[in-house]
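[step 3/7] fold_predict: job queued, chain A
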Amino acid sequence: MKQWIKVIGAGKTGSRDLTYDEAVAVAHTIARGESTDTQTATFLTAMRMKGEADEEMMGFIDVFRKYSLPYRSFSNSLNCAGPYEGRHYFPVTIPVSLLIASVGFPQVLHGSESFPLQTGVSLKELLEGLGIEMDIETKEWEKNFLGVNIGFIWTDQICPPFAHVRQVREQMGLGTFFNTVEKVINPVHSHNMIIGVSQKTMMDHLIQLLPRSGFDTAYIVQGIDGSEDLPIYKSSSIRKVTPWGDESNSIDPLTFGFRGEPLEKCGKDEQIRLLQRVIEGDDSDEIHNEREHVVFNAGLRLYWFDKVGSYEEGFQLARSLLQRKEAFKILEKWRDLSKRSELRPSK
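[step 4/7] structure written:
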């Protein structure tokens, strides 16, 4: 590791980017546990100070994918990636994914435990709060996924290298390029993705990385708090990326008759309470704003990934599914399957 740390950590005039092959060599060293915690932390800090290159990140993506558990391919699925720092607002993507799963479009959510210095709530914590069991063997996960068209991938469980470096990342207390690697390793080989970013500079990296990570159609959005969830009170920048190029656009909710207010910050318990109410089909005015965010985002994704013929058709379908409690039906089935599949200690 020392030689690679010297290459990237020699200051503005002496450092350089690693080649793809060099990044692959470093990734293998870290993945196999041959790098000490101090060396790994120093390497990650030096990379952050230098600025990560696309080839460097791609080397780690390819290597960490090789060390992941061998899930079968679900190429027709939609991979949803949100803020690494956790959620500070109502997590729109959960009911949206349930709604879309109810019409047969498989949805893959993923993430890990919250890090100590994070202030947001992880999707894992929220789904556990809704009764979904996470500690499930690969074959059982695949069986459940086929049954309900939705699943959550616990990154540290399916990719051991991330579990190995978790303590280092906790102690650093800083965001690193591992945050991006974690989002796009794509262990089930999804061809579709929606990913949230907080800065446009990250869009430029992802334009290069996503097609090489196996995604045929990907939408990069600057959503609420860096998430994949678009607000209904203002326009949002989006970027559609395919292997043949990319295009920029913006989405104005007013164009489609959506008017709302910014979502309010809330903690874990309140997020779970709101989720339960929306998913169960509560049509009270008190949660109108959250419900409209769900309808808007579900309609966008249905149209973007060719499940309906127009935005308007997508919004109409999403509203109908929510009213018929289709999201709740999927959640109930998912909850039941996960509890039956939960890993139990051997006797």
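[step 5/7] annotate
The chain has 16 helices and seven strands.
The two ends are 42 Å apart (CA to CA).
exit 0
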